[in-house]
TrEMBL record:
InterPro entries: CbiX-like, Sirohydro_Cobaltochel/CbiX
Top-level taxon of origin: Bacteria
Name assigned to this protein: Cobalamin biosynthesis protein CbiX
GO molecular function, one term: lyase activity
Organism: Cryobacterium luteum
UniProt cross-references to Pfam families, sorted A to Z: CbiX (PF01903)
SUPFAM superfamilies, per the entry: Chelatase
Amino acid sequence: MTLLGERQTAQRPPDGRSTVVPAALVAISHGTNSADGQAAIKGLVDGVARARPDLAVLGGFVDVQQPDVAASLSAVRCDNAAVVVPLLLSAGYHVHVDLQRETSAHERVTALSRALGPDDRLIDVLEQRLHAAGLDPLVPGQEIVLAAAGSSDGRAVEDCRRVGAMLQQRLGVRVTVGFLSAASPRLACAVTAARLRGASVTVSTYLMAPGFFFDLTRTQGEGADRVTAPLLLPGEEAPAALVDLVIDRYLEAKEHAQLF
């Protein structure tokens, strides 16, 4: 993995034209058995590739699906560096441990970007999903419960709480966070607490795509008035805000690692 201070140098033929191509963008998602989730994530990777036709854009997975991280990096041109962009909403075990290990162990010059969240562009998409579900933030007596996957890594949990605070500031509606695993409060408890306060409750799904955790969101969110769709949906063009976010994470990591 490239360290700060290292720089990839361009090799030039006699006519002066550079033969170096920009570092590949390797988008690594969690992976899912859900066909809808797979299609939704593929839509985001395809959207990034369309937005940056000058880059080699590849997809891969840290769990469940293939190709895994090592195979995805091996698929990049042998003379090309790579930037791994986690298609993950917060930086938990997969980012701090799995992806750090996989990128460091690979012989290719590789940089690892930050996770996607927190970021205002995620709030843009959450807001769009809330409006599509029928939420009117101007109606009094409403609450939002942000449904997050959860993590045993406190940094990831704090990332989710920060996104909840950002969404509350954006909409002017009270937002609490409920977790689907590994952290408290659990989503069902957060929904019940909001309901006991006499509010109309909307669950805002803070998940990348359909799959196991979205099914769990609908089950645990049964006490709410509405549950929004995840950030990505199959058959729907990936939101431009998410495409831009992935590209910006790539550019940021590439600049930090001083890659071409």
